[in-house]
Amino acid sequence: MSAVVDTHGHGHEHGDHHGGYSGLMRWVTTTNHKDIGTMYLWFSFIMFMVGGVMALVIRAELFSPGLQIVNPDFFNQMTTMHGLIMVFGAIMPAFVGFANWLIPMQIGAPDMAFARMNNWSFWILPFAGALLIISFFTPGGAPGVGWTLYAPLTVQMGIGMDLTIFAVHLLGMSSIMGSINIVTTILNMRAPGMTLMRMPLFCWTWLITGYLLIAVMPVLAGAVTMTLTDRHFGTAFFNAAGGGDPVLYQHIFWFFGHPEVYIIALPAFGVVSQIIPAFSRKPLFGYASMVYATAGIAILSFIVWAHHMYTVGMPVTGQLFFMYATTLIAIPTGVKVFNWVATMWKGSLTFETPMLFAAGFLFLFTLGGFTGLVLSLVPIDIQLHDTYYVVAHFHYVMVAGALFAAFGGVYFWLPKWTGRMYDETLGKWHFWLTMIFFNVTFFVQHFSGLAGMPRRIPDYPLMFETWNKVSSIGAFGFGISQLLFLYVVLKCIRSGAKAPEKPWEGADSLEWTHLPTPAPYHTFETQPDLR
Amino acid sequence: MAQGATTPRQHYYVPQPMYWPVLGSASLFLMMLGGVFVMNASAGGWVSIAAGFMLILYMMFRWFGDVIGESEGGKYHGWEDVSFRWGMSWFIFSEVMFFAAFFGALFYIRVLSVPDLSSLEHNELLWPGFKGTWPSAGPGFEEKFSPMGAWGLPAINTALLLTSGVTVTIAHWALKEGKRGMLNLFLFLTIALGVLFLGVQAYEYGHAYADLNLKLTTGAYGSTFFMLTGFHGFHVTVGAIMLAVIFARCVKGHFKPDHHFAFEGVAWYWHFVDVVWLGLFIFVYWL
């Protein structure tokens, strides 16, 4: 190996120096992937709290039939912003945070391929968040159109809609730059001997997620741009009188929207695929098939979008095509689930908090997958479209899937990030509270949905009262339990016990085997030779 | 190309902390906020847009200046070069997908929504007599308009842009052969052809508005025509500015026969706008 040659500025090479700036300016100007990863994760948590409060407003209103706390307009604004903030502000940035922290360490790279652009990807986000929040204070308030921003309602909204459209543009730019960075890093920065098929599965899932993001975020940008010109410049994309069609918006949106589901799910699969082998003390079962299954899910995700639109009026041939294509996704997903179970089979299992969250993920995500299969069938979906059954389904995938994996990942890598252990007892408390309250909140929504309760409506008939009360109680329990998570993380950072060099004996990727704990500010400035 | 993933490599250049990204975010924020104000006829929008625009120009000068300085200072080697290649390729792919959204809208409108509006039930209940043939501004559009023909100015524009693709390739060949005079000449020709294209396009827009009664508000035809050609024109403008920067650098003597990715990246981008134009010419103007 050739030695590191100092070809650039001062104080950047060794130890804990972080360039020229200190204090807040260190974070604003940083080009270090670990700093940027940390910022992504904290931003994500703050947005998780903001979106969570909105969810609690929704659940408080739905505690009883009738209108009592908020007016219907504000209720609509809450459902819209809850969705947008959770998807674009909380879950996606959380996994980009993991990617920033882990991918360079897992492939033996000195940093991300484009360190400055990495900074920009992050620092666009707070400004996009600001645009969304400002929309609440404009005449007419934030848009109350649902997170999918369907035309023609979006064409009729007030100023808040324009702010939201530009926020979506900014979020898209951030995602595209972040993904180009991640994909390039994985393709070009691997250490000698770190072949693609030796990469940890987390890197594989992000390689494919990055590709999906680069492919579909521009399509979303196109969709909201058409909305903007329809609103202000007299175009007729979504106006039937001008030859356009509101359904056109739905097609373009879901061409983005369905891959988006896997953009959120695949990195979660990656995190779980790191955790389960570590606590089973066995290598991941069926690594190659996991890679192919991930790629298969990504390819299929481009040809299933209209299963979100079975009820808008589509030829039966179209419905059948999208139904069959959608059910096909169960195959690669099933491969993954069985591989995770097979990894645990006859392993020496222990259930520390990360593993608890991974096991919870496995159980609940599979349930969410099954309800997805139910909804993929046209005859059933026509009954269940826009009911709480759909709400229950995607919260099983988004919360019990993506969020559980993110929690598991935080507990798993906190020792590597901070050099300290989290409080195992409190971590377990956090898991069980989250697990129980999650199911109290969302399992019962299957029942109200099957009984016909529509989503996005602030009022409901008396017959739905019981399950809504249960769900609201669960939601508040879930929300409060997340404060415990904040406490556990802060306690770990401030006064956690010193972590051993390798706290998880079964973990075998480079960040555990080749780097000290905590990971130094700069890692792998000279690449490890893994041949 | 650089060493593969199986040979040990040298140092990868990781840049210093800097302010340019956050400045870029702030300027985008200002421009977007200003845009919202302008579109909703609130005061102060243009001021915000202007401030954001000045800020982002400054940011780009400084950021690109840093990168050019690093490149000329010999900080980039084969390994960084591969990153730039991947990065530019994926960026162009994202641009392709952006245009795909608008082409998708065009195909959907032509194949599905306009014919569907002339279907039996629409004819009986909503819009009697609507034929549903393309070009169409939709059943609710009352005024007469003429669509843009393909074989006048658009055909000339096709020739201009395709020629500019040839000239930029000749310039690249000259750069690799070390023939600097020829490089500068053909790069200049490429920019001139691009600017000429934009001029013809602007003239064509004036013609559409003045003589054909073809406007952005002319239903589905006007929407798809102006949005597709407009975004393409915007990309040609960006490409021409990029070529101009590269030209200035060539005149200053930057780039070596074996080290000139900035040139190649811009050439790729130029070929990309070329290909998009071919799609436009076929599906928007011709068929």
Task: Describe, in plain words, how this protein is organized in 3D.
The complex is a heterodimer of chains A (531) and B (287). Chain A is an all-alpha fold and 531 residues long. Chain A is 67% helix and 0% strand. Chain A has helices spanning 24-29, 33-61, 72-107, 115-134, 153-156, 159-188, 201-232, 246-280, 287-300, 316-328, 330-344, 353-376, 378-384, 388-418, 424-450, 465-495, 510-513. The longest helix of chain A has 36 residues, at 72-107. Chain A starts with 23 loop residues before the first helix and ends in an 18-residue tail after the last helix. Chain B has 287 residues and is an all-alpha fold. Chain B is globular, with a radius of gyration of 23 Å. The interface between A and B is large, with 91 and 72 residues.
Tell me the strand percentage band of chain B: under 5%
What's the tally of helices of chain A?
Answer: 17
Oligomer: heterodimer
Biggest contact: A-B, 91 and 72 residues
N→C terminal distance of chain B? 42 Å
Tell me how many strands of chain B there are. Answer: 0
Quick summary of this structure?
The complex is a heterodimer of chains A (531) and B (287). Chain A is mainly α and 531 residues long.
